[in-house]
Design goal:
Blueprint lengths: L11 H11 L20 H13 L12 H17 L7 E5 L2 H20 L5 E5 L5 H9 L2 E5 L9 H7 L4 E7 L11 H11 L2 E5 L7 H6 L14 E7 L11 E5 L2 H4 L4 E3 L7 E3 L8 H38 L4 E3 L7 E6 L4 H10 L5 E3 L4 E5 L8 H16 L9 H8 L7 H12 L4
Parallel strand pairs: 2-3, 2-4, 4-5, 5-6
Antiparallel strand pairs: 1-7, 6-7, 8-9, 10-11, 11-13, 12-13
Helix pairs in contact: 2-10, 3-10, 4-5, 10-12, 11-12, 11-13
């Protein structure tokens, strides 16, 4: 039965009680058993985010004239990010609603730049196969052909294959720091050098690592060059609501120069409603997200981010070592931060994922190769030992021939048997239709 608007309103306390009850079936991310979607930095930070967001819940960042406070905070967030990424005073950018919007803005800017400066009318976007699907989404929305390159055995982008695929219509070459699937940073120096050689824009997707890698590097972690220190890097996307620990949705997209950023903007002077100028994809820009990002960066400071990065790196090292010690399991590649995947040559990892689900752990499934994915936050420090204990027991049970609980293993097995993955698109459309049915 469809829901209709109540004839009369209900007391706020009753509505809030229902809201809290709805949490019952949600992932329990505070207990550290969830490995994606939420980046929890502690109760104190969460409360600050709520307070800061609430302070600016009605304000709209679309108009910096009406709300100069939001303009000031956004500029300071962008400036702090530019400094972290070793940008000079010429680096410019904006905040966005998340990594997808940041990526879309970089694709649009590169497309429009190539159209104006090189006369490209049939633009192509060149990405490694591990790049985030947001690039595919941007290509779909903006009429850009996307071309996927191979990765090397170490799971990093194959620069030779990227070079093979460059054409006169290529407007953007992408590297990730790191890609989400395996946490292994692409060879950004080589990708940027290729882009310079071909006269093409280079974008670094650091949505995942942007607000972690600078602090990991300060802690002595080996981090390959990936930011504006690398000649040829024209733009960078980085999510504040990931390891920046800001409220959703908050990200930044930065450009080496303000002249490049101009290609992101949209303006229209012919509307009878007045002059219109929009810095990013969205019209309304929630002031609360800007304020919360500014608040958490000023609250944590370098020391706060370093402490959380240290916790994540320690938990990651323990978990990687523990996984590699379990017979039949191995971490894939050499991850550079608190994101990694692990697979098996002897066990069905999708069945292993179902067995871990039954114990309350939520691990993302991956393909090519089959793997389970971990994204580590400070919340995992206190549960790393329990995770490894449960994983060892589940793996031993499967190795002994015991069946896994029902779950997604059968579906992923079916997908793995399909050569042409585009055949899954209709299935996914049907899945989304079902999820969002009314009533």
């Amino acid at each position: 039965m469809s829901t209709t608007l109540p004839t009369t309103g209900r007391p706020a306390a009753a509505v809030l009680a229902d809201l809290r009850a709805l949490h019952g079936d949600d992932a329990k991310w505070k207990d550290g058993k969830t490995f994606s979607l939420v980046y929890f930095a502690g109760d104190e930070v969460s409360q600050l985010l709520k307070d800061a967001y609430g302070e600016f819940i009605a304000e709209n960042g679309l108009s910096p004239v009406a709300f100069p406070s939001l303009r000031k905070m956004e500029c300071e967030v962008v400036s702090m990010a530019a400094s972290l990424f070793h940008g000079d005073d010429g680096v410019a950018g904006t905040m966005t609603s998340g990594g997808t919007e940041s990526i879309m803005m970089a694709v649009k800017a590169a497309r429009d730049f190539a159209r104006k400066e090189r006369g490209v009318t049939a633009p192509e976007l060149l990405v490694p196969c591990t790049a985030h699907p947001a690039f595919d989404k941007a290509a779909h929305y903006f009429g850009v052909k996307i071309v996927h390159a191979k990765t090397r055995p170490d799971l990093r982008a194959d620069v030779a294959d990227l070079e093979r695929l460059v054409t006169p219509n290529t407007v953007l070459i992408v590297g990730s720091a790191p890609p989400y699937p395996h946490g292994v940073i692409d060879p950004i120096e080589d990708i940027a050098a290729l882009a310079q050689k071909k006269g093409v824009w280079c974008h670094v997707d650091a949505c995942l690592g942007g607000f972690f890698l600078p602090f990991a590097e300060k802690l002595g972690q080996p981090v390959p060059p990936w930011d504006f220190r690398v000649p040829g890097v024209n733009s960078i996307s980085a999510d504040l609501h990931k390891y920046g620990y800001a409220a959703k949705g908050a990200s930044v997209v930065l450009y080496r120069t303000a002249a490049l950023r101009r290609h992101q903007f949209f303006t229209w002077g012919g509307w009878n409603g007045g002059l219109y100028a929009s810095p990013s994809f969205c019209g309304t820009r929630p002031g609360g997200a800007i304020a919360a990002a500014w608040a958490v960066m000023n609250h944590l400071g370098e020391a706060g981010y370093l402490a959380r990065a240290k916790s994540v790196l320690a938990s990651t090292a323990k978990m990687k070592a523990g996984i590699n010690a379990i017979p039949g399991l191995r971490v894939l590649g050499e991850p550079h931060m608190g994101v990694f995947a692990f697979g098996s040559d002897s066990l069905n990892v999708y069945e292993l994922g179902d067995a871990m689900d039954a114990r309350g752990w939520k691990l993302d499934r991956q393909m090519d190769p089959p793997a389970l994915h971990c994204m580590i936050t400070p919340a995992h420090e206190r549960v790393a030992d329990l995770f490894l204990k449960d994983l060892k027991e589940c793996a031993a049970s499967l190795a002994a021939g015991h069946p896994a609980p029902d779950g997604s293993a059968a579906m992923y097995g079916m997908v793995g048997a399909i050569g042409d993955r585009t055949q899954m698109n209709e299935f996914l459309l049907d899945f989304l239709d079902g999820l969002f049915e009314r009533g």
